[in-house]
Amino acid sequence: MKASPVISICLDTMTDLDTNLDALLSLDHPDDYARWRDQKLAQAPQRLEELLVEVRDPRQLSLAEHQAITERCRRANLAIYVTALGDDPDKAIPARLGAQFGLGQLDHNPGADEDAITALCVQTDALRRGYIPYTDRPIAWHTDGYYNSPGRQINAFILHCVRPAAAGGINGLIDPEMLYIRLRELSPLHIAALTHPSAMTIPPNIVDGVELRPASVGPVFRRGEGGHLALRYTDRRRNIQWRPDADTETAVETLRSLLDDPFTPRFEARLEPGWGLICNNVLHSRSRFEDSVDQTRLLYRARYYQRIAGT
After folding, report:
1. Can you say how many angstroms the Cα of residue 122 is from the centroid of all Cα atoms in its chain?
2. 45: exposed, middle or buried (C-beta count within 10 Å: 0-12, 13-18, 19+)?
3. 79, 1, 46, 57: which is closest to 272 by C-alpha?
4. How high is the pLDDT of residue 297?
5. Residue 112 has what pLDDT?
6. Dist. CA 17–CA 27, nearest whole Å
7. What's the confidence (pLDDT) of residue 245?
8. What does the alpha-carbon distance between residue 167 and residue 269 come to, in Å, rounded to a whole number?
9. What is the mean pLDDT of each run of 10 residues along the chain (311 residues)?
10. Which of 251, 113, 110 is nearest to 182 (CA)?
11. Which residues, in sequence order, are bridge partners of residue 202?
C-alpha cells in the first residue's frame, strides 16, 4: 500500500458540511438534508489512498500534517497516518496524537490499562471471558462503546499499530454518514426507526451474579459530541434487543444488508508498524488473523468522549 503525499490545505476554504442536526434526524427539512447530502457525496473520498497521510512523528505533527489529517476527517470522519517509526512500543504515540486534536477525555473501559489505553493482543483467557477483541477471531461491524451509558458515548478513537499479525487482521471501515445517506435514500422510515430513543438495547453484563455494567438503551443514529451525527451500532446477533415493532425490524434488516452490500462505500486497510487510524468512531470490522512465533499482533487503542477538533 503506497501512501499519498501530505496535502497542505486551508480549512477555511473547504465547503462546510455541517447542517442543523435536527433537520437530519427529524426528517422535516428535506431541502436541508439534500444540501448536506450533495456536499457530502461530492467530497467523499473514493480510494483508500486519499485517506493516507505521511507524518514524521505522530507525537509532534507539523502544521501541514495536522491540516492534512483534519481535512480527511472532515471529509470521511477518518484518516490513516503513515510513519517510519516501525514497532516503537511507546504508548505516548496515540496519547500525544490525540491531544493535538482536542482529544483528552479517555474512556476507562474494563480492558484498558491504568492509562486508559488498551493493548490489543491475544490473551489466553479472553475467549473464556467472551471478549472477542482479545482473541484472533474476526469482529463484525460495530462502533466502539455501543454498550456505554448515554453520558459515556465514544465519539472518537485512535488505533495505533506496533506490530501487525503475521497474517490477516484487516480492518473494514465505513463512514457512518455515508450509511445514513444510503438508508435515508431507501426510506426515511428507516431513519425514524433507528433514531428512536429505545431502538437498541444491550442487556446488562452480569458475571457470577454480579452486574458489571447495566443495560444500555438508546438510538442507533444519535446526537454526538458537538451536535454532530453519530452512530451507535453492533452487528452481533446475540445478547442484543431491538425495539419490538415492524419498522425497526425492517430498518435493522436493511442496515445489515447495506453492510454486506459492496456498493456501500467502504475501505479496507491493514495497519503496518507505526501506522494508525484516527477517526470519529466510524463503523469498523476486523478479519481473522494469525500470529507466529516471530510476530505477534499488538495495537494500542484509545477511546475518547470528544469528537476530533476541527471536524
Report:
1. 21
2. middle
3. 1
4. 96
5. 73
6. 17
7. 95
8. 13
9. 38 44 79 92 96 98 98 97 96 97 90 86 67 89 94 96 97 98 96 96 88 92 87 93 97 98 96 98 97 96 96 90
10. 251
11. 216
- Here the cell at position 56 is 514524521
Cα–chain center distance at 265: 14
Q: What is the pLDDT of residue 296?
A: 96
3-class state of residue 131 by DSSP: coil
**Using CA atoms, how far apart are residues 231 and 177, in angstroms rounded to an integer?**
9
Strand pairing category for 52-54 and 78-82: parallel
Instruction: Say whether 126 sits in a helix, a strand or coil.
Output: helix
pLDDT of residue 126: 56
Q: Does domain 11-182+269-304 have CATH number 3.60.130.10?
A: yes
Report if pTM > 0.85: yes
Q: Which three cell numbers stand for residue 76?
A: 470521511
What's the grid cell of residue 139? 469482529
CB 101 within 8 A of CB 302: no
Which residues does residue 106 pair with via DSSP β-bridges, in sequence order? 304
What's the confidence (pLDDT) of residue 136?
A: 92
Question: CA 112 to CA 141: how far, in whole Å?
Answer: 21
Beta-carbon-side half-sphere exposure of residue 198 (alpha carbons within 13 Å): 5
- Exposed, middle or buried by CB within 10 Å (0-12, 13-18, 19+), for 123? middle
